[in-house]
Every structure is written in C-alpha cells, then in structure tokens.
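Quick question: what would this complex look like in 3D?
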Amino acid sequence: MPRSSSSQSKVLTPNLTPMLDMVLQLITFFMMLVHFGSRLEGVNRGVRLPVAPAALPGAGMTVDQLSAGLDARGNLLVGDETLDPQAAAAWWKRQADARRAGLELLEEPGTPDSAFAESGDLPTVVVLRADRSASYGSVRKTLAEAQSRGFAHFSLVVLKREEP
Amino acid sequence: MSVGPDQMLFPARGVPAEGPDDGEDASARGYRPAPPEDIYFPAAPMLDMAFQLLAFFVLTFRVPTAETHLDLLLPTTPAALPTASRGLARPTSSPLVDTDLENDLIVRAEADELGDLKSLRLGEAEIPSLDALGVRLKRYIELLGNRPLRVRLIADDRLLYEPAARIVAICSAAGVATVRLSHPGASP
C-alpha cells in the first residue's frame, strides 16, 4: 500500500528573523538601561527619604564617600547599627581620624599646598540618608557634628518623586 | 571588495560563459539572470547567543531609582561675610547687574506644633509658597550676575526634614552656590 504524501517527513524551517529582531531590540533596551557599579550604599528600609521634586540630578561619583543614615528619631544609622548621639560623635571622630591619617600618608612631604593641607577640610563626601520624619534640628546637628570633625562636603539623599 | 560575475572562476547560474566562439553580447541574446536561490541563514546560533545576552541583562537589570542628591558645601572655616554697604557709589558694568546687592541671604522657616512649615521669609519679606521662593531667588541671582549667592537657612529645630529638604532643593535648583543650615538662635 503506498504511503500518502502527507505522512512524508518534511524539514520545517521556521522563520526566526522576527524573533531575532525582537530579541536584539530587547537586548538594546536593557543595554541602554544597564548601570554597573551603582549599588546604593547605606540603604536602610527603615528610612523613608523625603520627596523634593525641585531637586536636580546629583553630581557624579566621588573618590571617597561616607554613607550614613538618620532615622525618624534622629539616631545615626551606620550599617546595621543604630548609634545614640554619644556613639555617633565617637563614630564621626573615628572616621575623620582614619581619613586624615590616610591623607597624611598619601601626601608627599614637599607638597604642603594641597587643599587638605590648606583648609584642613576632608575631601570625603558624606552621603546622608535622613528620614523624612526626622526633625530639621537632628539633621542639622548631625551635619554640624560631622563638620566639627573636618567633613565639609555633604550630600543629602532625597527622592525626585514618590516611589511606589 | 565585491566579486562580480565576470570575476568568478566558474560560470554562475544564469550568466552565460564567455568563450572564444561566444562573440555575441549576452544582452543582445536576451539573457536575464535567474532569480537568486534562497540562502539558508542559520539563525539558531545567533538566537542562542542573543537569548543568553538577554538573560544576562534581564537578571542584572534594576529599576532606575528616583533618588537624587542635594550637595552642600559646609567648610569648617566659613568664608567671611561681606561688611555692610558704606554707600559708596561704584560704576556698574551692566545695567542689569547690581553690585550693591548682598550675596548672602537668609531664609527663615517657621514650623507649627506638628513640625509642618508655617511661614517662610526671604530676608524680611514674607514668601507665600516654596515656588515663589524659587522664583525670587532666580531673579536675585540674575541681578547678582556672576557673583555667587549664598543662602543661610534658619529654621525651627522641630521643623520636619522633608520641608527643609524641599527648601534646600529649591535653593539649589535656583542656582544658589551654597546653602548653610543654622538654628533659630543663630545671628544673621
């Protein structure tokens, strides 16, 4: 009995070009949005950042950053620790001393005219993520404490819009 | 470099081979090139690679955050404030730039019992809203010309951080060079 022509095996060649187009477009989309090495330091789920729609995009990356948080009660958050004002003052001092010692090691003896040697201000940028319910006084005191230890560059983290 | 039919080592399909006895022109004999064969392009390896790349980017994708930064420069040795104007006339280079204007301004923010913003003043002038503060600061900066404007924010300590951050953001967006934070008892 002869076999019907429909049962004969055929090599099916699906058209993969549209699929390839879609995949390449998706790759392009994700490549445009990829952002390597931008892990947010000091992120704390307990801190709800304030919303400031007028804020402009921040400056670029800096060499040395020191991240800290401030909860709604005004306590300093460093890593997983919550520091009371006395411990916070000691922590600022330790951080400033460590950075100052590092800078003195890096500076050559014959170059006393660097910005650090002139003003004594540390080039470290202090990134502060303060809770929106914290008081202005607690933020101001935290900045003043850091300032008294030699930190001069601060960056307050805010939200451009409310995040879902 | 493309290879045409006349440079091929063997006659292509549809193109007549030229020989010594083939004196007539091909076009004269009405030859037309045959339609090209369907070329099978193996897309599967490319698709495999594309899917692997896609998987990598999908797995490393993170939704862009709405976070931004308000930069503050608070040197430990603040710059000296300018002295009061002595009323000396000075020629101005541009009629739109007023060199007698102070480039240090004070923004005062008062809070109510709940810590919300109750009133806002720029110098001695009452400011109805934060937007109006931004407009006034921009106009002031235009009048200052190239001189940097420095603002000192004097606010109640019980003021919530969010309205204070909004004030700082508006100052920065208006073009204020530095914003300093002070307490209500600070001397102007």
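Answer marked as accepted. The mean pLDDT of chain B is 75.
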